[in-house]
Specification:
With 99 residues, this protein is an all-beta fold. 0% of the residues lie in helices and 45% in strands. The strands form 3 sheets. Strands 4-1-6-9 form a 4-stranded antiparallel beta sheet, with no helix packed on it. Strands 5-10-7-8 form a 4-stranded antiparallel beta sheet, with no helix packed on it. It has a two-stranded antiparallel sheet with strand order 2-3.
């Protein structure tokens, strides 16, 4: 079964005053969502979460919001691709297969 891996972060680390595009470990929370032929939502992000790192092990599309629905027309990620997104606490990410 294909999976979307989600790490939630409160802030990003800095090096010599410059923000580094990486999560400040340990993450606030971690979760997974099964990727299939219908849109599936994550649990709501933590009250401390300001951005997430997502990593799918298959091609998929994502959508973010309070009650998001992913479609094959929403932003697409390649299998094995890793992306960071700014989010609001309490929001969710929805995912759907997009092969």
């Amino acid at each position: 079964m294909a999976t979307l891996y989600i790490s939630e972060y409160a802030d990003m680390p800095k090096l010599e005053g410059q923000v580094i595009m990486a999560g400040n470990e340990p993450s606030v929370a971690q979760q997974t969502v099964a990727i299939g032929g219908a849109s599936a939502q994550s649990a709501a992000f933590s009250a401390k979460t300001k951005f997430v790192r997502v990593h799918p092990d298959s091609v998929c599309s994502l959508n973010f919001g309070l009650n998001p629905t992913a479609t094959t027309s929403t932003p697409r990620l390649s299998a094995g691709g890793t992306e960071f997104f700014g989010v609001r606490p309490g929001d969710k990410v929805a995912v759907i297969s997009n092969v």
